[in-house]
Fold this protein.
Amino acid sequence: MLKLYNTLTRKKEVFKPIKKPQVGMYSCGPTVYWYQHIGNLRTYIFSDILKRVLKYNGYKVKQVMNITDVGHLTSDSDEGEDKIEKAAKKEGKKAQDIADFYLKIFKQDFKKLNISEPDIWCKATKHIKEQIELVKKLEEKGFTYKTSDGIYFNTSKLKDYGKLAKLKIENLQAGKRIAIGEKKNKTDFALWKFSKQPGKRQQEWKSPWGIGFPGWHIECSAMSTKYLGKQFDIHTGGEDHIPVHHTNEIAQSEAAFGKKPWVRFWIHGAFLKLLGEKMSKSKGAISRISDLERQGYKPLEFRYLVLTGHYKKQINFSLENLHNSRISYKKLINIVRNLKNDKKQNSKYVKEFEDAINNDLDIPKALQVLWALVRDKKAVGKINVIKKMDEVFGLDLLKKEKIVIPSEIKGLVNEREKARNQKNWKKADEIRDKIKKLGYLINDTGDGAKLLKK
Ligand code: AMP
Ligand code: ZN
């Protein structure tokens, strides 16, 4: 029995999909104006783990992830510049080239971190028609109004607006005196924004209301519905999305489709903090997977670090933490790769593991179970359990490491082969010692010389 914490109800609930064994899952994806930092990547490791746990439990998961390539403004409210347009201007490139470049790097990071790709990637700019249709529907139902700036959603028309974040609307309204301009309520948000000077933006489209571009939230409602239907099982994202982005996704979707709740389970991942600061791409202080690699760390050592914290607890990232994770991960791999497969399966540890992962994805506990298993001198059937566990961890625990042999070593091996063919054993032994000093052991087999890392 899988239990998941639902932000909507603030409770751990037994997970039941709408149509077993299918599970529809939508994960808010990146805004592709810059590299995704390791904080963003923590959120994708979390949704990857969720997907793996669902699959482990026999569900057939269809995961959809959006690519925000228009409409996300420099402030999460509806002000400021479009992040992609701004980056395109700064880098002197086409908006779509910016989006494609950062998307490519993002997908490479997925691969490095063993994050499985979603079944469907969808770009906001490729779904303009669907977004306009949705705004039209909201207009027909009386949820919208027009300002000089765009078409807005009137949040006062929904009785339960803000239920996800438990927003106290009255307090918000009476709170700080923030200029709301032509908006009717402080919480109202843009569905469609007008281009201030048509022809100046790279990305703009005709609509029934004027030339412009979609607001940030509407893409997620339009695309999730297109691929998963008007009601679906799970929606994920980082915890920062609860008060604005997800709150507004719910408002516009429930208003348009009339299904309540629109999404059954809202599951949010906590932040990865760098030196106690919220990591932000916009501030420029970022740290990427490739930065970690440059410092000699492997991406899976970062994945291991992420798995040591529960997804609902923030992680304070530091190189010291990463270093400790590397030591544990290396130790674990060394033990696991030296185990013999006795073809048995240790059911006690399988049960403990399943109890942990099915208890709201308690991966830190599941890792403790793995450590207890490998340290248990009497336990049998270890390898087969570890195989099952790694379907969820995705840590390549049993993968044979490919060794990349430097060309210098390859040259020495060839030289040694030559010496052996000439029966010059003294020279051959000298070369073997030289290779050993450089960190490799030679094993002469019937198929020729095989190299092992010392
Ligand atoms: P963005 O590209 O800004 O739209 O963010 C992509 C995803 O990363 C969203 O789900 C955010 O909630 C999440 N996110 C942003 N910053 C962090 C962080 N420091 N730690 C974890 N997740 C984050
Ligand atoms: Zn979204």
In short: The CA atoms of residues 67 and 123 lie 5 Å apart. The chain has three domains: 3-269, 284-393, 407-453.
